[in-house]
Amino acid sequence: MKQKTLLFSLVAMLPFAVLVIAFEIVPLIGMLIDSFSKDEGGGYGLQQYITALTNPYYSKGMLNSLLISLYSSLIGIGIALVASYSITQMPKKIQSMMITFSNMTSNFSGVPLAFAYIILLGTSGIFTLLSKDFGWDILSAFDLYSWSGLVAVYVYFQIPLAILLLYPTYAGIQKSWRESAALLGASSWQFWRYIGLPVIFPSVVGTFSILFANAMGAYATAYALVGGSYNLVPIRIGALVSGDVVSQPHLGSALAMILGLMMIGAMWINERMMRRVRRDLR
Amino acid sequence: MRKKSIHYLVVVIVGLYLLVPLVATFLFSISNTWANTILPSDFTFSWYQQLFSDQRFIEAMGRTLGICILTLVVSMISMVMTIFVITLYMPKLERFIQALVMLPYAIPGVVAAVGLIKMYSSKPIVLTGTVWILIGAYFVLILPYMYQGIRNSLRTLDVKRLIEAAEILGASKWNAFVYVVVPNIIPGILVASLLSFSIMFGEFVLANILVGGHFETIQIYLMKRLKENGHLSSAVVITYFMIVLISSLVMLKLGSRLQRHERGEKAS
After folding, report:
1. Is residue A161 part of a domain?
2. Residue B89 DSSP SS3
3. Which ipTM value was assigned to this complex?
4. Interface test with A, best of B23, B64, B118 (most A CBs within 10 A)
């Protein structure tokens, strides 16, 4: 009987095991090994990592990726902090409407989003033409296909995600706290400085790490907007392995490992922070 | 009172900010010509007509739907069986499986693509450029969502007792599982599947790097059309978005019904 159960269990888990091993574990291990391979002749070493981290071209790409993730996450979280607080102050109906809407627009990223921004702010975009008509100079200095354009598009996909992640946090700030603080003579500013912000701070850090990872790994949006020309880590990795130029799979693996480790680091921070929130609320 | 109105203002501005790109894309897709005016001068549905009579679009749509459905079926069957066995017989393995299943959540598409290319673009097994590698990659991509959905709905049931009860009544373990447990977790599976569906439907990176020119999914079609015809591309975007919208609305409805169901059970 016991043996029969074991046999049944093993057979039932077989398809899952095969698929996970073939498409998750083996490729990851392969990539790990590959990232330590030398270019010609074989052998193993840190050569690829050294190139990835010291070659100015790739370190510039890394820096670009870090900066765009930092900026877009900071702007996104700033706007979402205000927006999601305002949402909690709405009647229930509007609250659930806005959350549904954020959920919907959080799906709006990648190629379709890049395209929407081309329509709005591209060389013959609606706003670009309009601002020319009105003789405004603000937008003529703006180039969608450059750094500021990328940040603008990244910010768009960060905001709904940040709202979705931050909105539940404000529920942790109870009305009675505000009232007691007010009774004890605290101003609104003092309330936020000493009670409100410390309570939501871990969630904000957690959300920031998710947004940051989200931007670091984003490929489709940038690719659709500027093709392979802009120097970002995901774009460089894509070019290295799919051979747009000369394919250098080992270097691609090393860059991918670095990116993957950063991502896992971000997720780890998020988990730590969320744990702290839960304990605080209890 | 003045404070309240500030919050309304913020919500309206953010709402508009999120809405404008969508509305503009929609207007662009139904306008004939649109240049130098605030609103398009004349409207037409011809772009949609053109799109839906374009063989390439229909085929890309069919490919994407086919691959999504195939992956979902494979994922559903293998995940349900595995999670079932784990909860019932091998609870010690749960942490390990959880780590495996959550890993893709932390790994961006480009990174996953590098590993897959490395393994399957040379002998002995060549899969790059074929549908199979994409199905495998998508299976891994949706692991976290499928796992969470199925796991959560299994948690609301007392599976062990249900199976025991069915066995006492003379059912085999397998029958008890298929006829008693599965019908009870179907709503949870559906919600997880719909979420996974929208993720795969909007996926571009893996498709582009792994199968690129060999297998045109809807996102790749969109990418190729982007520079050729703006109006047509915006019609694709709106069609794509409508499908995602419908699936998320169904998901929401199913999800809220699921919650009510659970609450009802707890109350009784």
Report:
1. yes
2. coil
3. 0.86
4. B118
